[in-house]
Amino acid sequence: MTETSAPRQSAVFLDRDGVLNVYLPGDYVRTPGGLHLLPGAAQAVRALNNAHLPVFIISNQQGVAKGLMTGADLLHIDDALKRNLAESAGAYVEQSYYCPHAASDDCPCRKPKGGMILQAAREHGLDLATSVFIGDTETDAQAARDAGVGAFVLVLTGKHQNAASFPEATDHIAETLGDAVEWALLRRVGA
Ligand SMILES: [Mg+2]
Ligand SMILES: [Zn+2]
Known about the structure:
Elements: E1 12-14, H1 41-50, E2 55-60, H2 71-89, E3 95-99, H3 115-124, E4 132-135, H4 138-147, E5 151-155, E6 172-174, H5 177-188
Parallel strand pairs: 1-2, 1-4, 2-3, 4-5, 5-6
Helix pairs in contact: 1-2, 1-5
The structure holds magnesium ion and zinc ion.
């Protein structure tokens, strides 16, 4: 064993809307009361917690740039999400990363760019090649690829209800977050 650096940590990245909570086509979750966890989502996060795989939320929230909510509103919604996860299943996320910018801002964080994932990797010492991104949109797949995340799982609880219309490469397609997590654990734990 000549390795001197600390072993790096695999992680699971989750998009928020359509993955953890109900997706509102053409709209944004603008208030804490407007956020509704998908069935089984909290239990799926708890399964990752039990496996000691850190969970990160990676989410675009352009509604802030559009003036539909404030940055403080977004943080209150994040608090509500974390409270719902805890109360539903004793589940928790390590950290949430949100891009509040507009598509026209050309920031480094907004998906399909990998900026938020790379920031999480820097801040938490994550090994992206052995990590998994679970998302519901094309831009999730593109951001995961841009950052070098080892696997992308499409979950069919958000923008796409079937995989036929999904144009990006996937490593797995899951009906629910629970199914996606099961796949991630089989693929990653002990690997
Ligand atoms: Mg989404
Ligand atoms: Zn941004």
